[in-house]
Amino acid sequence: xxxxxxGLGRMGGNMAERLRxxxxxxxxxxxxxxxxxxxxxxxxxxxxxxxxxxxxxxxxSGQPTDKTILxxxxxxxxxxxxxxxGNSNWRDSQRxxxxxxxxxxxxxxxxxxGGVWGLQEGYCLxxxxxxxxxALVQPIFNALAPLGGFAHVxxxxxxxxxxxxxxxxxxxxxxxxxxxxxxxxxxxxxxDAKAAMKAWQHGSVVRSWLLDLLVLAIEDETAFKxxxxxxxxxxxxxxxxxxxxxxxxxxxxxxxxLFARFASRQDVSPAMRVISALRSQFGGHSEQAIDRRPAxxxxxxxxxxxxxx
Length: 309
Hints:
Elements: E1 2-6, H1 10-21, E2 25-29, H2 41-48, E3 54-57, H3 63-75, E4 81-84, H4 90-101, E5 106-113, H5 118-121, E6 124-128, H6 131-136, H7 138-144, E7 150-154, H8 158-186, H9 193-200, H10 209-219, H11 221-224, H12 236-247, H13 252-264, H14 270-283, H15 295-302
Parallel strand pairs: 1-2, 1-3, 3-4, 4-5, 6-7
Antiparallel strand pairs: 5-6
């Protein structure tokens, strides 16, 4: 098949290459002219030729995706299909589907997982859209996904909703591994955390690809120690928690993992400063605060001794 790929970054560029390896013709467009085969979106649409034309959008969610799809509305026509493979909000995808449908253009929201390893390993695809549109571009999905890694999960919006849940689960798994690693390295006996996690890769019920990546990350201790412990969130975790509140579905693990990322960005936690101050006020606990008792009284209290007065 012939396909237009908009956005040739870490994901889009590798996806275009995997498709070419499967003998599909890919015309790429990117703001970087050194990697682009089209001068602009109009040129991309022209090079794709006659309908049905297929365009895969792989740009950041929000305004960049909105702008791209609105421009495609004017460049494409009936029978063409647009696929959004970015991490868009599922409600935005429903809106994009309606905007394109008004012009007779099909729309598929393709939740895509695989990261920088997808070129070799393939991409897990969870797509939403009309069956006839999915069937039209199925050869593209077959080339990108590994065996068993494709699912048509429902109508427009269902693909990105599923990817949102997927990423929320990812938050929870990553946080659990991180906490386990910290506990292994904090205990007051000598535990080889690296050896333990390597063993978990084989036969353990907690083995996973994320665990494999963690073992790779901690293998080089010098490089690992350079990480600052600052964790961003790309949106899907927040959206998942918001949807859980709306639907009254308890997500304690995913919510806690999201909040842990927020905490990682604070040099000094205002909340924990309050806790420290309160402990000093009601219990006389000395935590870098002005203590109201003599130092010897604090030390005795910490040892469980009765201190007069």
